[in-house]
Amino acid sequence: MKHGPAVQQMWSADDAAGGATGGQRASARVDGAIKPLPKDALIIIPLRSAVLFPGVMSPVTIGRAASVAAAQEAVKSELRAGFLLQRDPEKTDVTPSDLYWVGTTGPIVRYITGQEGAHHLVVQGESRFRVLEFLDGWPFLVARVAMVGQSESEGPEIEARFLQLKERAIEAIGLLPHVPDELAGVVRGIRSPAVLADMVANLIDVKNEEKQDILETFDLVRRLDKVIALLSARLEVLKLSKEIGEKTRAKFDERQREHVLREQLRQIQNELGEGEDQAAELEELKKVIATAGMPEEVLKHAEKELKRLQRMGEGGAEQSMLRTYLEWLAELPWKPAPQQPIDLAQARRVLDEDHFGLDKIKRRILEYLAVRKLNPEGKSPILCFVGPPGVGKTSLGQSIARATGRVFQRVSLGGVHDEAEIRGHRRTYIGALPGNIIQAMRRAGTTNTVLMLDEIDKTGAGGFHGDPASALLEVLDPEQNHKFRDNYLAVDFDLSRVMFICTANVLDTIPGPLRDRMEIIQLPGYTEEEKIEIARRYLVKRQLDANGLKPEQASLTDGALAAIVRDYTREAGVRNLEREIGSALRYAAMQIAEDKAQQVTVDAPGLPAILGPRRFENELALRASTPGVATGLAWTPVGGDILFIEASKVPGSGRLILTGQLGDVMKESAQAALTLAKTWTGESLEKVDVHVHVPAGATPKDGPSAGVAMFLALLSLLTGKPVRSDVAMTGEVSLRGLVLPIGGVKEKTLAALRAGIRTVMLPRRNEKDLEDVPAEAREKLQFVLLDRVDDAVRFAIGDLGPVATRDVA
Description:
The structure is a single chain. Helix 9 (296-311) runs antiparallel to helix 10 (317-331), helix 11 (344-354) packs antiparallel against helix 12 (359-374) and helix 18 (528-546) crosses helix 19. The chain is of the alpha/beta class. Strands 21-22-20-19-23-26-27 form a seven-stranded mixed beta sheet. The protein has a five-stranded mixed beta barrel with strand order 2-4-5-8-9. Helix content is 42%, strand content 17%.
């Protein structure tokens, strides 16, 4: 049943927005006069969200023009109106088909004009009626109706149902809160079963469709049964609601009682001296806060929170959260760390001990230390090491910390998709914590820290949990991070003294604004000689320790290390190289553990028995004498690689067929290369299809730098002359035959060297990039610089003999 006064409910006949029905029907007026209604007709007022029952006086609010006109005419003419329930309460343009055709008549006892187009009525329901037909010609709904008489028959069946309904209605009234005491007396005084059924149906809290069903039930016995069934179901809900309310009230009273008892216990403990432990803990926390070196604003905030903690009762959840928060504030390194004297010679020695090569990175680190020595208060740069896996990006950060005398901390960002992992959780629920940045500062215990943000290119994209990459903008901006605000701390923390170092495999996935805040340092990979030297200096020793071996028990010859680098690994870094060295030393460990040998030396001829057959072979000899094949150079996120371009002709209609998972840019390079090749040879190729394939079809490939290789492969196919197999090339071509510059020169050059190629053709405009190529690699390679494709043809294929004009400029 509804909560509140029983007899009168405020119903809304329609919204005050005004509907199209009112405006259209109002056009039926003729000179402002309304023709009289037939004797058996009623003015109809639709009700949006309520059903009017006989014997019930109810307020009604109307707003549509047609409803207002109908009400005003009923009041003016002192006519009774008919009230029908609207099927769809959201519909504004009401037609007869949108209404139920059984309703209640009644006079409008009071009419009040409200604000904003709303009109308020007080209506007295009298009797049921059924619509026979709707009539046209009035500015509102008018219908011919048949009145339905009120059944007042008596008998045992009706009397029994009447008593049961009255009993349950009184019981329901007793379960309702804020109900006037007179309502139960009103129900007891009702003598008519029909009146009681309509009154209870009006008061019960059920859907309007169910109330309409009761209104349309003319048989009194069936109507009483339906009302009793609905009231019984509602009565169970009211009983359950009251039971839940009593349990909640009892639980609340129990908490109040527990609070009083705890307060009494605290006073008793204080009298007995047993509450001194908590007071001592709070006093110790107060001393830690006072000596933490916090800035003045942070100190005032901490002292304010400490006073709140002292006023709280013991054992509360909020007390535990507040204590944890103050402990975080007290344990953070607020005081500026003392600057250690910077010894550049010592730093250079440490870097050389830990890493072989990487001269550019070492020089940049020494430059940083030199600037820090001259300007101790300067802002730390944000360095970002970008390179393939296994080239030493993370270990380089550890070496920087050792060389600078700083504490090293690492935060892995791979897969982080929640902004709270950077900025922290807001202190609104149990279990909230600061972000990883503040946690790392607490572990370090000082701001004189090297903080490595590893795998920054693998930070999850923004979504429901925010954008962690955007949250890093404040952390990695030297102009802002002196006032970094963690959501958990809610106070500023100075990160300007922290030396941030980021690592990434690729730059493409790092958002532009974040990349702009970092100084990018590329680590493209190692040459074969560098790998052998790294293995000799570091990897073998590390794997000896890992496998429980001593240097006098096991060793690898230089030939074995070179064979592992050349035949068992093909990578930019040294991670797989270390694994293969570990496999060889585990073989030695087994020999020694089984007492089969006292000392094991692994050499190159013995590697196949230990590591299996060679995994990488030189493919160039297999393609040496095949026209239509050229060797290109490609850049990948894990270093450079060689790329074979294969071209073939088949009978057809002049189509260009491209396979090998080529991207859009590479497809356009193939189109341009074919056009250029046809210009060179003068062949129309109208009766053949040219198929260009790039092997390793499971690997997606894209980029413009394969243009020269594609052109030479197609030209070799059309002329029948092979491209030199010991030459690799890179560069973009234009339709005029120009060779345009590309990127990744160092990675591609090292890939050619690993593949056994000794000649590399590059665009002349990339000549400046050769400075980044290691000196030993430059000594082993011959570089051919290209201005036009003529230079590439002359060197890689040779004299083509009589061909069509090459004047394509």
